[in-house]
Each structure stands twice: as structure tokens, then as C-alpha cells.
Design brief:
This protein is of the alpha/beta class. It is built from eleven helices and 13 strands. A hairpin with a 4-residue loop joins strand 1 and strand 2. Helix 8 packs across helix 9.
Length: about 375
């Protein structure tokens, strides 16, 4: 009996001391589970007194394993995903739930925000019109706007129109050409899913991308009758399995669709002076014009487009020159117009990014 007591005490001590023995001591550590920097180790005794508890909570050994176990159990048993960026809806759907997405979904904005966006689009449209050029404004919806039926019930929706809907209604009273993709993707989802179930809740999948680019091509054809419409037989369709560990569903995978263009009748090159920007040249393009795409990740994210060419797969076969400038690198869109001399500007904005620094901040 005494031996068992000793073994019990030894095991209890080990359970208490082992996590301390494996405490993380690196100076700067980022936790992918919390999407933040862990508390830094204090340098002085006074700092230890004030910050010691937070340091121990953040850096104690096996913390990541314990947190992951807890979150997996919570999701498996109750369908609740405890994550700094995502939330779990019904039917196994995950949604982006950072502050920008929740504000967009719950219609949290000022009327001045709408007026500012309209003024910027009006300025860009007039600037292009005065030079004989064209603007097409495209707004990509977040998953919440296309699949609202699976949203978590605890996230309440305001009865006020969203900023996206208010902007769409306002643009109908102007001569600014525009497409709001929410309706397009809602119609298309009756054929097949246009967003991932769990993988990358921030973007549409490649099927949603195809539907969006197809709709854009129809709009561009109003300007250029020779503009080809993307066809499914231009692409080879396959599937691949992706790991869902980033969403804390360890050892879980999702099968996602892949569309790869069969032929690439254009040259694609990176730009050296603008981060992540690139362009294409196609001397045999049916439209002998230059297209400037200013857009965010819906136009180029590798989680959507398998080969990394993004929107070039859809527009480079049509236009002689295509420039793609990420809004992350955008300083002044009017300066880009002066530099690249496009015949048409396709300005794309994601619904949940309307109020962050990427869009409509140029002077």
C-alpha cells in the first residue's frame, strides 16, 4: 500500500512539474491557436510580479496540446468552435468572424462611410471617363451573404441594410458600371457549392470564382464584343484533399474542387517595384486593349487558385495586357491609371474589407 502511495505522489508531482520543465523560453513566440504573440518573458523582478501570471498561462509546457484538445472536444461534442477568427455554423459550415466581418454582417457603419466610398468611386469614374477609359466596380460577397442560412444562431443580424446593400442601391442611381456578386453566387449555389464548407471561410472556392469571373466577362463584353466568356472546357477539373489543422480540426481533411487552365496562351511576369503585383502579355488576344485589375485576395489567393495565376487565367486570354495590383500595395489608384494607361479598370473589393485601410483611402 505504501508503494502505491509513493507512486501516486510521484505521478502527481510529475503532472505538476513536467509542464513547468517544458515551459517555452524563446523570446518571441506566435501562437497559431490564438493568432497573437505570446506574453514576453519579463526582464526584472518587478515585471515578473505584474506579468508573471500571464507568462505562465501563455508559455507553460503542453499548453498548445491542452488547448487544442479542449477546442476539438468542444467542437465535436457541441458544434462550438472557439477560435479568434472563425465560428462554427450549422451543417458543418465555418464562417469568418473577425471584427470586420461581424461589422459587415451586422450592418455596423456610419452614413459618412457610404458617402466616402461613393465619392471615391465617382472621382475614379469621372477621371477615367475624361480620358476615354472605363470603370467596372465589382464587389465580392463574404460567405455570410451567400450562405446566411447556416450562420451561428447566437450572432444576431441587424435589420438595417448592410453597407454592401446600401452601396449597391446607391450605385443604381449613378452611371457607374458595377456588379455585386452576392446574387450571382446565391443563384449558382443551387448548382453546386460556391464556398468551402470549412477550408478558408474567408473566400469563395474555385467554383464561386469561375461563376464570378464569368459574370464579369459578360459585363466586359458590353464594352468589347470580342471579349470571350470563360468556358468550363477551358479548364481541367480535379479535386484535392486539404488539411483543416489551421482551423483546429486536427487530422481532419476536406475535399475541395480544383480548376486548372488546360492551355496558357499568355506570358505572366512579376513586377519588381510593386509588392505582389504582376502582369501578362498576350499578343494573340482577341481584345487589343489593356485591363488594369485593382483587387484584393479574391483575385489572387492561392487557397482559391491552384496554380497561383489567379484572375490571369480568366482575363489574360482575352486582353492583350493585364495588370493585377493588390489593394494591399495600393497608394493612389489615379497614379496607377497614369502609369499603366489602361483602357478599362476593374476595381474589385471584398464586402468585409470596405471599411478597412485597403480600399477607398486614396487621395
Amino acid at each position: 500500500m505504501k508503494i502505491f502511495k509513493i507512486l501516486f505522489l510521484f505521478c502527481a508531482a510529475a503532472l505538476l512539474l513536467l509542464p513547468l520543465a517544458f515551459t517555452t523560453t524563446q523570446e518571441r513566440v506566435v501562437s497559431p491557436l490564438d493568432n497573437r504573440m505570446l506574453a514576453t518573458i519579463p526582464k526584472t523582478i518587478q515585471d515578473w510580479r505584474s506579468e508573471g501570471e500571464n507568462v505562465l498561462k501563455d508559455r507553460i509546457g503542453f499548453r498548445e496540446d491542452m488547448v487544442l484538445f479542449y477546442r476539438r472536444a468542444l467542437y465535436r461534442l457541441f458544434g462550438i468552435l472557439e477560435h479568434p477568427l472563425y465560428s462554427a455554423g450549422s451543417n458543418g459550415q465555418l464562417y469568418l468572424s473577425d471584427s470586420a466581418s461581424l461589422d459587415a454582417y451586422q450592418s455596423i457603419y456610419e452614413e459618412a462611410d457610404l458617402e466616402r466610398i461613393l465619392a471615391k468611386l465617382h472621382t475614379l469614374h469621372q477621371y477615367l471617363q475624361s480620358r476615354g477609359k472605363h470603370l467596372l466596380y465589382v464587389q465580392m460577397p463574404m460567405k455570410q451573404s451567400v450562405y446566411p442560412e447556416y450562420m451561428p444562431s447566437y450572432i444576431q443580424k441587424n435589420t438595417r441594410p448592410t453597407l454592401s446593400l446600401a452601396l449597391e442601391n446607391a450605385l443604381k442611381n449613378t452611371d457607374i458600371p458595377h456588379i455585386f456578386m452576392a446574387d450571382v453566387l446565391r443563384r449558382y449555389k443551387a448548382i453546386e457549392p460556391t464556398y468551402y464548407q470549412k477550408f478558408d471561410p474567408a473566400h469563395y472556392n474555385i467554383i464561386g470564382a469561375f461563376a464570378a469571373h464569368e459574370a464579369i466577362a459578360h459585363k466586359l463584353r458590353e464594352l468589347y464584343p470580342d471579349c470571350p466568356i470563360p468556358q468550363r472546357n477551358d479548364f481541367r477539373r480535379t479535386t484535392k484533399m486539404v488539411d483543416l489543422t489551421p482551423y483546429f480540426l486536427k487530422d481532419t481533411k476536406e475535399e475541395i474542387p480544383v480548376l486548372a487552365r488546360i492551355s496558357q496562351p499568355f506570358e505572366h511576369r512579376k513586377m519588381k517595384d510593386i509588392v505582389f503585383a504582376s502582369y501578362s502579355v498576350n499578343k494573340d488576344a482577341p481584345v487589343k486593349q489593356t485591363l488594369l485589375i485593382v483587387g484584393d485576395s479574391y483575385m489572387f489567393d492561392s487557397r482559391i487558385y491552384d496554380k497561383g495565376l489567379g484572375a490571369f487565367d480568366y482575363y489574360a486570354p482575352a486582353f492583350e495586357k493585364v495588370y493585377l495590383i493588390p489593394t494591399d500595395s495600393l497608394q493612389n489608384v489615379l497614379a496607377l491609371v497614369n502609369r499603366f494607361q489602361p483602357d478599362v479598370v476593374l476595381y474589385e473589393a471584398a464586402e468585409f474589407k470596405l471599411l478597412i485601410k485597403d480600399h477607398f483611402r486614396w487621395e
